[in-house]
Specification:
4 copies of one chain form a homotetramer. By secondary structure, the first copy, chain A, is α+β, with helices and mostly antiparallel strands. Helix content of chain A is 18%, strand content 33%. Chain A has helices at residues 33-50, 132-139, and strands spanning 14-19, 62-72, 81-91, 95-104, 112-121. Chain A starts with 13 loop residues before the first strand and ends in a 7-residue tail after the last helix.
Chain lengths: 146, 146, 146, 146
């Protein structure tokens, strides 16, 4: 099918260990496809919290997910211990894209790769340029082609 | 950003009512982005079950999701009553793509549009051509450009 | 084991249709035990919203769940269409208990019966007496022994 | 309300670290009550897998949850790192009860305490006595009054 081959850990910039749960498996005995997005979201939220991008409270920077996607390379299943790899693959004035991979246990090859395109919005919900410090933080894990 | 405008109900071929749940909302008070994939999966599974594509049991036809995605046009929130619209946007020999939209309450404009690309696999997990009856069933809701 | 026999619809006062989702099933092919609490929560939230108990926003009445439980009488599985039955089994000055049953499809016998004991809290998180209108609303579906 | 005070780590026999996820929080910004049962289930499943009680596959020992419950002592919220404490509080011929506590971060006092009463069933779904090795394994973390 001409699919891009799965990425490896070297293609990502920040990592986070994410254990699986019994309920992540669906009736087919593997991670349900929605579970991947729960894990992506968790990796992204943890990274933002730890790098000082406040996503809650009165001074929160609010990002809306406008597009997401996932390519499933191989099955994952509870009780796999996953590692999420994170990088920023695109960054503009008010939007950017997180690329996220999930690696099973000690594997160096991604079992799944996905993305979240997020837009920074102001209090009225309209796209607004990043604050300079947010731009700087995001750039730390950027891997951008152009 | 040059995004494709949201689709309307007329662009879909089968519909299913899907109520939201309290837990679908995340801390931002709107549907978490992973919830959309739970709803897509449910709409697709119900349609398959009702059209005689067995997805469970010893004689099950097994489809693996190899890619999924979602564009989020506008926020959804509990207690919205959603309608999922379904169509098949591509069909090959062993793979096909469901396109799924979610409409809030009485809205004719999709709040979100996503897809599942699925591959039919045999008992060893390898891609295998559809049985003729499966091909025929899938074609019933196909809206294919070429 | 001397268990109380399952209740019937006649023992409940308000009803709500709750369809199941593909992801509700776990690897055993039946509803995961946590799913029951998602459904209980949804039935309770819908009933509160429709009877004018505001659970969100600046004027929200805030209830904290302090205890919950469920007895599982018989298995449920996607794509069952469930009916939640609701009643209030205890009401005090600042706390009360919802009893909730889940009925599968057309069954008159509960497949599961659970409860939420909730405490009304003020803005500091301390138990506080119900407003009179809240007390009156809750009493509408009360079935209280003493 | 005369509630039993929260337990401490000393009251439990096996421990497991369980990180929270962004989606565990509901609209109130704290762990949804159903999330607790997902975490209980995960702690129990991991313990069983690691102690040689097979819960999957053709030779699986099958336990059905017949009753569950949780007392919520204090709020938990993402990104708390939780520790689940586990013990067996009752053991009979074909049924037993897991008691599970969740501790937030470094706290020695349980934020929540719950239980799962499970019945061992045979292939027809009827209660059946434990195999001697299962009985022996379960007894390792038993804390039984009588």
């Amino acid at each position: 099918m001409g699919r891009t081959p799965p990425g490896t850990r070297a293609a990502y910039r920040a990592f986070r260990t994410l254990p699986t749960r019994w309920r992540d498996n669906d009736e087919y005995g593997h991670l349900n496809n929605a579970t991947y997005f729960e894990l992506f979201d968790t990796a992204v939220s943890l990274w933002q919290l730890e790098h000082g991008i406040e996503i809650r409270g009165p001074k929160a920077t609010r990002f809306l997910v406008v597009e997401s996607g996932c390519r499933y390379h191989s099955e994952l299943r509870f009780p796999d211990i996953l590692t999420a790899g994170l990088r920023i693959g695109h960054i503009g004035r008010s939007s950017f894209r997180y690329d996220i991979a999930l690696f099973a246990n000690d594997s160096d090859t991604a079992a799944a790769e996905g993305f979240f395109t997020q837009v920074h919005v102001d209090s009225s919900g309209r796209p607004a340029p990043f604050a300079p410090n947010v731009q700087e933080i995001l750039t730390r894990i950027a891997v951008v082609a152009d």
